[in-house]
Amino acid sequence: MDTTVPAHPWDLPPERTLFAVDIKDFSKAPEHRQPMLRQALDSALESAFTQSDLAAEWKDSAGFQDTGDGCILVLPPARTWRLVDPLIRLLDEELHGYEQQRQRDDPPLLVRVSVHVGPMPDSNMADAINDVARFVDSDAVRAGIAAASAHGSYTTLALSDEMYRRVVLARRSRLLPERDFLAAPATVPGKAFTRTAWIHVPRLSPGVVAQYLERSEANPVHDDGERTTAPVSPGGVQLSGNVNINTLANNITTLRTRQINHAGRASDEGQLNG
Asked: What does the pLDDT read at residue 73?
């Protein structure tokens, strides 16, 4: 007689670590160059995983999903602190090597990475895998890769709060302490997703990354992928770039000013009378 009791659908499955990677602007690369770009990514990942003592995890991922412009790996959690340190640093070095060797006509290779941990059944159908895909596609990570691209880095990493606590706050990351991460709201246009992400860009300070995040928040992305600039209020003047306030005041009778502090709250308004 079979006494096996079927698992209740509410039973929590074992936890797994989710690793997602995505190539920036992959769809903008010429069609005939996309396979080469993806091959370069896979080669860089394999090398970085091997150097991080994660070669077995790279070869034996229980839930490898090819996303075309990247992939998602489902991994046993025990040793995946190495995905944070040293893998991200090693992956950035591999991509730097690609940049030094690529021909002028070859597209650049910059990647967004997210790492999350959560319950995962054998079917790999769970919130955790959806969440890691949202993290890698979020505005926060896109701001991070924009900062990387502008400052000579090639990778940006987003950790979920769960992964950040288990690796960084738990001191399982000797070379990436708390001061190397920026807390940011991870949102995806058109998706009901808002979580805290911890952003790291190799060789960049969180202060530099924060500047790009502020620009992203000021110019949100619509569902069609287009950014909009903040509207100008009636009777107001929108300033951008470097403006000589004295020259401007000579041509305006009254200039209303509003100071924004670092917490995002506006202080009292004032006037400059010409």
From this structure: 96
